[in-house]
Amino acid sequence: MADFETPELFKHIHIPKPVPGAMESVGPFIAKPDHQTALGFPAELVDNWEQKAVDAMGEAVKKYRGLAVFLDSCVKCGACTDKCHYYLGSSDPKNMPVARQDLFRSVYRKYHTPAGKFLSKLGLEWLIGAKTMDKSVLDDWYNYYHQCSECRRCSVYCPYGIDTAEITMAARDVMAQIGQGMKYSNEIIAKVYKIGNNLGLPEPALADTLEGLEEDIEDETGVKVELPLDRKGCDILLITPSADFFAEPHVDGLMGYAKVFHEAGVSWTISSKASEAANFGLFIGNYDNMRKISLRIREAAIDLGVKRIVYGECGHAWRVGYSFLNTLAGPFDFLDQNYPIPQHICEFTHDLIKKDKLKFDPSENDWMTLTFHDSCNVARGSRMGDKAGGQFTIPRDIIKTVCNNFVDMAPETIGEGTYCCGGGGGLLTDDLMAVRVKGAMPRMTALTNVVKEDGVTHMAAICAICKSQFSKVLPYYNLGMDMIVSVHQLVSNAIILTGQESEKGEPETAESKPE
Amino acid sequence: MALEVNGKSYEVDEEGYLANLNEWDKDVAGALAASDDAELTDSHWEVINFLREYYEEYQIAPAVRVLTKAIGKRLGKEKGNSKYLYELFPYGPAKQACKYAGLPKPTGCV
Asked: In angstroms, what separates the C-alpha of A461 from chain B's closest C-alpha?
């Protein structure tokens, strides 16, 4: 990993002067042949890839009409130029959303528009900013389309609603189809097909991990709370990111879901077949893979005979679940139609809170002052509850119920305009650490301000990627890696289980408590 | 890419993880650590040995919580926390300790 500079933080999010080429690089590691073929892509860069890329682009534009509209409608107004966290953190003008789109648009213009085709014959395509598909274009695509987290913040400010994420996805898909996919995402998808989850956690390891968590909860509370695996005939199938089984603070959130299900008196199970909520098919922009990954959830729900599907804390999974699951893997007519299909764990917990079915001691979280990071895919790609904006109010309502100290970050940095954590969209890999650290600058600015002004000690999130990304990048900005917590970790700390031995037990997160 | 140890060449991936888990031995572990400018003490070995055992049984590295619990049980409660593990493996116990143990890098949202 090359050395890089962590951006300096200013009082307000600083808009830098463009530094051309600041983030020029070879991009992330290229997928190995095995990881390409497992996903149905050619093992390596094919012969005549230039033409094949142009053809694949033509197909994408025909298939996804939104993409064609996005490519045709930009008027270069500049509203998006200062909206991308990667531009703000890196100063590279190719990270301005319009410039990122133009990497793809310029090729589209040459081969797929009447003006481009005509002017190309005269050698005048440059008049309309059209470009030939060649190695330098591919290199730029590979590098800069892996400096976009598909967070869609720019689309909020675009007067035409152009969604750069769709263009990034299309470009990545074209690259994978000509044999140049990305290692991180493709290796992970191959593991999902082979083992069932992103981590490659086999069923016996999963069973052992869940058993260990049951012991931990019983040690802490004296109550036997189950975390069942592959149990047939349950009410609920929990689909959660495999990071919830593996990493911290994710696992503390998983224990929170288990406690909520326990108190709700519902039966539930995890599936070893669909032991992953994440769907990296979205990140690589490939419909067939996204569908194949989604179908595991349908199969698991049918095999286990459940009535409902609940999603754990995973940002992009919830976008796929909320927005696309029915068309990808539906119809879900075999599930109980009285509940949302699927339902988010926050909706589930929030409903119980509203019905006064859960007991809490929020003072268990008094040693913290919380803020909440809206995850991009939840904020801009989905919703929760039955009111517009529920994806913003529901998690905050939960936090405020279980914690006494809560402060929001600056309004332009949360809600619909939330800044990405910097690690989303398939960029959560060590070979992109410079991109991740720089892209976190806007969120780190907003967070540092509430730390200094309001005494915020912790930031909660409902996305596995956000949690892992923050625990890695916080130290670069002189903040503690354990500042990031799961929303259901806070629930877990405060919930009083029926029959709990001591209502004032040791907090579950004792180890991360400041000494 | 390759790592040279005692005159023998070992294949490693772009990030320095050993390609073939069966080729691992103590000298290789030391060389993998040395390539990160790290030195393996007895405390590191306690963790690495546990990782190897767990991998042998489950074909995956243990979850962070499983690891901290096991280390706490074996070596005393004061060592059974992620703070202790991060002191030993500052790049993260899951990734760095796996590397020295010759195990594949954990993938996913971790």
From this structure: 14
Q: What is the three-class DSSP state of A356?
A: coil
d(CA A363, CA A123): 72
The chain A residue lying nearest B107, using CA atoms, is: A199
Report the gap between the CA of A236 and the closest CA in chain B (Å).
24
Looking at the domain that runs over A33-181, which CATH code has it been given? 1.10.1060
Greater pLDDT, A74 or A502: A74
Q: Sort strands B2-5 and A484-486 into parallel, antiparallel or unpaired.
A: unpaired
Interior/surface letters A95-115, b for 16+ CB within 10 angstroms, e for the rest = bbbbbbbbbbbbbbbbbbbee
Cβ within 8 Å, pair A247-B95: no
What integer pLDDT is reported at residue B92 of this predicted model? 86
Report the gap between the CA of A105 and the closest CA in chain B (Å): 31
Check whether A18 has a pLDDT greater than 80. Answer: yes
Residue A391 to residues A136, A321, A453, A458: CA-CA distances in angstroms?
Answer: 41, 14, 26, 20
Residue A515 has what pLDDT? 39
pLDDT at site A2: 53
DSSP B12: B
Residues A223-278 have pLDDT tens digits of 999 999 999 999 999 999 999 999 999 999 999 999 999 999 999 999 999 999 99
What are the extents of the domains in chain B? 2-34, 42-100
Q: Which of A67-76, A442-451, B80-89 has the weakest average pLDDT?
A: B80-89
**CATH label, B2-34, candidates 3.30.1420.10, 3.40.50.150, 1.20.1070.10, 1.20.1250.20:** 3.30.1420.10
Å between B94 CA and nearest CA of chain A: 9
Say what the pLDDT of residue B91 is: 87
Residue A497's pLDDT is 98
- Which pLDDT score, from 0 to 100, does residue A514 have? 45
Percent of chain A with pLDDT over 90: 97
- What's the maximum distance between 2 C-alpha atoms anywhere in chain A? 83
Residues from chain A contacting residue B82 (CB–CB below 8 Å): 248, 511-512
Closest to B99 (Cα-Cα) out of B1, B32, B30, B13: B32
Neighbours of A254 (CB within 10 A): 29
What is the rounded average pLDDT for all residues in chain A?
A: 96
A245 touches chain B (CB under 8 A): yes
Residue A358: pLDDT over 80: yes
Nearest-CB residue to B65 (from A199, A212, A468):
A212
Residue A82 pLDDT greater than 90, yes or no: yes
Spans of all domains in chain A: 33-181, 190-508
Q: Is B98 a catalytic residue?
A: no
- Non-local CB neighbours of A343 within 8 Å, separated by 6+ positions: A308, A309, A310, A311
Average pLDDT over residues A413-430: 98
Chain A environment of B92 (Cβ under 8 Å) = 472
* Residue of chain B whose Cα is closest to the Cα of A251: B65
Contact residues, chain B, for A187 at CB < 8 Å: 107
Asked if B60 and A201 come within 8 Å (Cβ–Cβ), the reply is yes
Residues in chain B with CB shorter than 8 Å from the CB of A468 are 109-110
For the record, the structure tokens of A298 come out as: 């349908």
Q: Which CATH class is domain B42-100?
A: mainly alpha
